[in-house]
Amino acid sequence: MNATLDDLAWRGLIAHSTDRDALAAHLDEGPVKFYVGFDPTAQSVHTGNLVQLLLARRLQQAGHRPFMLVGGATGLIGDPKEAGERVMNSVDVVHGWVDKIRAQVERFVSFEGDNAATMVNNYDWTSQMSVLDFLRDVGKHFPVNRMLARDVVARRLESGISYTEFSYVLLQSMDYRELNRRHGVTLQTGGSDQWGNLTAGVELIRRSDQGKVHAMATPLLTKADGTKFGKTESGTVWLDENLTSVYAFHQFFLNAEDAKVIDYLKVFSFRSREEIETLEQATIDAPYKREAQRALADDVTDLVHGRAEREAAAAAAQALFGRGELQELSAHTLDGVVREVKGAEVDGDVTIVDALVAAGLVDSKGAARRAVAEGGAYLNNEKVTDPELLLTGELLLHGRYAILRRGRKTVGAVVRG
């Protein structure tokens, strides 16, 4: 097997592929031009998309050339969901999201050297095509019975699916053909939920151009209980720090389950096989040390947000529970912490009792007074003894933030409006 495919297989990154031997031979022949697409159906990509971004990085490091597609056209339609029609966002909104996602995607591949990456937008060619040309040149190559047999379409037939979403597969297939014609792209990657779309593109190129191209899909990552990876009680884990703070991002990976952390390391880290196997043994021998989780959280956060932001997030986690200095944290880092602990906004000076209630650490003022009297209330890691203490500006971090704690582990915050 090709060395790159061998590594990807070991990392658990190949769920499906077209003829594996033919793909291995193709990769061995020399630099391959490949593409992966991202639809702007939100203002940011998320941890599920990160699998594809890092796969593109791995393939580029192996000498192949990435084409990173942001779907200004397909984002206006949206791939069919398991349940219900997607909301149709306006052209202006989608094109604004294109710019944001493009800026995120660009950080993961290099645009220099012999195999420099290229950014493309399918709106550039789709918007120029008439309906008649689309139906004659693309639609005639798609048997309706095969389109109806697609899993997501079959599940939606009873509840209903619009022709718009039904036709999405034609648009994505046309993208592959267009990139093949324009740039010689011969490999498309994506998640396993995209496998039907990937193979449809391969088939379109075979039918219309008599060309031979390849496709490869990664598995969908799950947690130990089978639920979707990257989903939390508060929602999706985004790569945009305005939607998911760096602190919350780092904590998400730090809290990876023992049963899954090595799988995640293989996918999200660029550590060698030997390093990961050492961490795997450490997880077996001393799981309480959580060495693999720390390596995972640090590696991924460094890739997405940079080492400085990761170190600030790690320092914040230590400081929150009295093992570091809160006063040394920047306002930017504290903003992320306050969002994660669902800090409450207050107007003007409030007492410590009112702050504890506002932060949700106690149910009533009476309970807050008892916490203070029993020595279990903390303001910015300092024990509070006076229930009438007023949280004036000089007591707040950066004049705005109060990190509150009840006991050793229950943390909240208030921020001055």
UniProtKB/TrEMBL annotation:
Cellular location(s): Cytoplasm
Reaction(s) this enzyme catalyzes, per UniProt: tRNA(Tyr) + L-tyrosine + ATP = L-tyrosyl-tRNA(Tyr) + AMP + diphosphate + H(+)
Motif, 'KMSKS' region: chain positions: 228-232
PANTHER family named among the record's database cross-references: TYROSINE--TRNA LIGASE, MITOCHONDRIAL (PTHR11766:SF0), TYROSYL-TRNA SYNTHETASE (PTHR11766)
GO MF term (any one): tyrosine-tRNA ligase activity
Superkingdom of this protein's organism: Bacteria
Keywords assigned: Aminoacyl-tRNA synthetase, ATP-binding, Cytoplasm, Ligase, Nucleotide-binding, Protein biosynthesis, RNA-binding
Source species of the chain: Tessaracoccus palaemonis
Physiological role: Catalyzes the attachment of tyrosine to tRNA(Tyr) in a two-step reaction: tyrosine is first activated by ATP to form Tyr-AMP and then transferred to the acceptor end of tRNA(Tyr).
Name by which UniProt lists this protein: Tyrosine--tRNA ligase
Binding site for L-tyrosine: 35, 168, 172
